[in-house]
Write a structure and sequence with these properties.
- The structure holds three protein chains of three kinds.
- Chain A is an all-alpha fold.
- Helix content of chain A is 76%, strand content 0%.
- Chain A contains ten helices and no strands.
- In chain A, 40% of the residues are buried.
- Chain B is mostly helical.
- Helix content of chain B is 83%, strand content 0%.
- In chain B, helix 2 packs across helix 10.
- Chain B is globular.
- Chain C is built from ten helices and ten strands.
- In chain C, strand 7, helix 6 and strand 8 form a beta-alpha-beta unit.
- The longest helix of chain C is centred in the last third of the chain and has 19 residues.
- Chain C is globular.
- Classes of the chains: A mainly alpha, B mainly alpha, C alpha/beta.
- Chains in contact: A-B, A-C, B-C.
- The interface between A and B is large, with 78 and 80 residues.
- Chain B: It comes from Cryobacterium levicorallinum.
Chain lengths: 286, 261, 262
């Protein structure tokens, strides 16, 4: 089990100016204890949820006991429509994230490496970025209705800025000494891009994509919930309006597990991509 | 000359974009994309008529109040809980998998659940915003608290600083860059959830108004609503940035000093 | 004033154990200036952390001002090598120095007086309102020293405080520490791996062996009390002591509790 609560560092804050503290290695025995404690944590939540309704603290229709939700979950796992909804959700999420990432990286490198361009666009970027993508909901409803495209527009709009801004920061982080070295060895423009800018910006890009992945899922589900594009969010809205609350809880749990899977996958990819990078950086700083 | 140039850089592109929008949409017959001229013409009647009773004041106030209340409550809860979890490894081990699961649930799906308990009133919306903002702040606080420099901690211990003073003069300031980063993320999530919860079920608020315009096919008005929401996001971000740069002056100064060295 | 009695420290993990200190035993008299020298990897930092109450020894005990140490003791101030990480960057210089005094519940007036006095002692009265990161490394270490003396400790522990500053600054800081010791009569234990520094500063030098560490030898430094960088360092006696200490350290590199007792 990873002992690190994954945290998304904000732009520029991630590299602490304090000398990094080597984390104490967890002992084998400690790790087992931690896993047990973690399971105990999950179990206690399940237990509390089990008895809240029978004890009369909440109404049973508002929070069905854990066992009832689990039964609904088991039923859902056998439904093909549920799996279809999972597929739809992942589909929109993945396409939206991919488009936003590619666009964000390309535009980000362009803006980051050409100074006048960066200066000319920064006010516009700063203006457009904080616009909540949900403001576009009414527009996409009218233009596309409850179809994939609605969700995609929202997802791409929201995810694009995350990747763009991180990439611009990453490109700006290039060590001037390294850049001068490359120039003095007469690297071509492409060489500078390939061997200087890209490796420096990569960790930032990955941070941006990690942030974007979470945001993309939020917007995918939002579109399904509010506009009714097919997917888990739509199933939740249907269960809610049908008063099938145990089913709704089970669907929320499934969405949570999907979110967990997204986090884990993105984290693994990031670790993979940056593996050489981390060791390289550590060597360089020592 | 220099300032003139930087003003030029700031204004040039927005002016170009707005002009383009104006010209391209000037004789637009597309119902979904009315001309900028019509949108701007609809703006005062839609948002400003009625002074204190105008839509901007009534709905804007309703929305901002929900956002602020939820965001501040989330910050207080997340920072206290996060400090506790960050300082006590056992508590962290106990909570971590549960937190990982809960934070992975996309905020919007909480809207119907909270609706079960809290109806569709302000309480529901505040709780939705609160729960949405909570996770990024909480996780960043935990990480920030855990990363406090060991030499600083030894210093505080060797001078026998009390637990209270250690938390308020060492742990929290040291973790503040991370905490504020979490708050920044939390704020943008909070705005999204505020709008969504108002779109889902409400009788007032900016999100509600915009959806009403859309349902009534009042397109120029809907566009003005989109603009208002955009401006709200912008203002929130500017206000927060001011707050952040003010409270992290030591941090930016230190980083600049480290870079120049 | 400071008594370390048969101290042992063993680090244990699930399947390994590492004995850093075997049997460290020495005392420092009130008002004495003692340097603790040892080859790198000779449990110096471990020993210091145990003395400062930041770490529990596996066996043996520490007494500061006749009180057994269980946590960080009263009346002990510690100056770290990593000055940049021991000052709080969000507090101004004066606030950094004042912080431990607040814990002593001193009245505001007394606190301010002590801060001003301590900063004057280290020559930083004009930087009170600056932030640590606005100062050079040597100046930051002066702040850490000012914080320690404003605290008026019985014992001042310094953990290789000048290892990270340049040679010029280092000489100035050495003289500063000597002056403070003479003026304020604070019992000082100064850890260093620098032989010249140890001889120049101390009244007595304690040489530690490699791990598992024991006290390998103690040397009295019989140089005149009045010291200065040029004349003291060119005394024949300085060279002799330096020579002896160098030889002792060379021996310590291969010696440990294992070889000496065997």
């Amino acid at each position: 089990m990873s002992t690190r609560l994954d945290v998304v560092p904000a732009v520029g804050v991630e590299a602490s100016a304090f000398t990094p503290v080597p984390r104490r290695r967890f002992r084998a025995r400690g790790r087992v204890t931690n896993v047990l404690l973690g399971c105990a944590g999950l179990l206690s939540v399940a237990l509390v949820a089990q008895f809240l309704a029978p004890l009369g603290i909440v109404r049973e229709q508002d929070l069905p006991p854990t066992t009832v939700i689990m039964a609904a979950l088991a039923g859902l796992l056998g439904e093909s429509t549920m799996w279809m909804a999972v597929y739809d959700t992942i589909y929109v999420w993945a396409i939206g994230l991919a488009v936003a990432s590619v666009a964000g990286v390309v535009v980000g490198i362009l803006l980051g490496s050409i100074e006048p361009l960066r200066r000319a666009t920064s006010s516009t970027v700063e203006f457009l970025r904080p616009i909540p993508s949900v403001a576009l909901v009414p527009l996409v409803v009218l233009v596309f209705g409850p179809r994939y495209e609605s969700a995609l527009v929202l997802v791409i709009y929201a995810a694009f800025w995350q990747v763009l801004v991180q990439t611009v920061y990453g490109v700006a982080d290039v060590d001037p000494v390294v850049a001068d070295t490359a120039r003095s060895y007469r690297f071509s423009r492409w060489g500078v891009m390939r061997y200087v800018i890209w490796p420096t910006a990569l960790p930032f890009v990955m941070t941006g994509i990690r942030l974007a992945a979470t945001v993309a899922l939020v917007l995918t589900v939002t579109a399904q919930l509010i506009i009714g594009t097919p997917g888990l969010g739509q199933s939740i809205a249907q269960a809610e309006s049908g008063g099938a609350n145990a089913r709704m809880y089970a669907l929320v749990l499934i969405t949570g597990l999907l979110g967990l899977a997204v986090n884990i996958v993105v984290r693994l990819v990031e670790k993979r991509v940056l593996a050489w990078h981390m060791s390289f950086r550590k060597d360089a700083s020592e | 000359m220099k300032t003139l140039q930087s003003i030029g850089y700031i204004l040039a592109l927005p002016v170009v974009l707005l002009t383009t929008w104006w010209i391209v949409s000037y004789d637009s017959t597309n119902v979904y994309f009315p001309s900028l001229q019509r949108i701007l013409a609809a703006f005062p009647a839609t948002w400003l008529d009625g002074g204190g009773e105008s839509r901007l004041v009534v709905d804007g106030f309703a929305s901002i109040w929900r956002l602020l209340f939820g965001f501040v409550a989330a910050t207080v809860i997340a920072v206290s809980l996060g400090t506790l979890i960050g300082l006590l490894p056992r508590v962290r081990a106990f909570c971590e998998p549960t937190l990982e699961l809960f934070r992975a649930i996309p905020g919007p799906v909480l809207v119907p659940i909270i609706g079960l308990f809290a109806g569709i009133g302000d309480t529901m919306k505040i709780i939705v915003v609160l729960l949405g903002c909570l996770w990024p702040i909480l996780l960043n606080t935990v990480e920030g608290v855990r990363a406090v420099d060991s030499v600083m901690i030894d210093t505080a211990r060797s001078y026998r600083l009390s637990a209270r003073r250690r938390i308020f003069t060492l742990i929290l300031p040291a973790a503040s860059p991370q905490i504020l980063a979490g708050m920044r993320q939390g704020l943008s999530v909070g705005i999204i959830l505020m709008v969504i919860s108002e779109m889902f079920a409400a009788t007032n608020g900016l999100g509600f108004s915009v959806v009403q315009f859309q349902r009534n096919f009042a397109l120029p008005e809907m566009w003005t609503g989109i603009i208002v929401l955009g401006l709200l996001g912008l203002v929130a971000s500017v206000v927060f940035q001011y707050f952040e740069s003010h409270s992290l002056r030591w941090y930016t100064g230190m980083r600049r000093a480290a870079r120049d060295a | 004033m400071l008594e370390v009695t048969h101290m042992q420290k063993i680090y244990r993990t699930a399947d390994t154990s590492f004995e850093a200190l075997r049997d460290v035993h020495f005392t420092v008299a009130p008002g004495e200036f003692v340097c603790l020298v040892g080859p790198s990897g000779s449990g110096k930092t471990t020993l210091l952390k145990c003395m400062a109450g930041l770490m529990k020894p596996s066996a043996g005990s520490v007494r500061v001002a006749d009180k057994a140490v269980s946590g960080p003791p009263e009346g002990l101030a510690l100056v770290f090598q990593e000055y940049g990480r021991s000052l709080f960057p969000w507090l101004r210089i004066a606030e950094n120095v004042e912080l431990p005094l607040k814990e002593l519940r001193l009245p505001k007036k007394e606190r301010l007086a002590r801060v001003a006095e301590a900063l004057a002692h280290v020559g930083l009265e004009n930087s009170a309102r600056s932030y640590p990161w606005q100062l050079s490394g040597g100046m930051q270490q002066r702040v850490a020293i000012a914080r320690a003396i404003a605290y008026r400790p019985d014992v001042l522990l310094m953990d290789e405080p000048f290892a990270a500053v340049d040679a010029q600054t280092r000489a100035e800081l050495e003289d500063l520490v000597r002056t403070i010791w003479r003026d304020l009569k604070i019992t000082t234990l100064f850890v260093t791996h620098d032989i010249d520094e140890a001889v120049y500063l101390a009244e007595r030098v304690i040489v530690l062996s490699s791990t598992p560490t024991i006290v390998q030898r103690e040397m009295i430094v019989d140089l005149p009390a009045e010291r200065d960088q040029l004349s003291t360092r060119s005394l024949p006696r300085f060279s002799e002591l330096r020579h002896d200490l160098y030889a002792e350290i060379q021996k310590a590199k291969t010696h440990s509790a294992l070889t000496i007792t065997a």
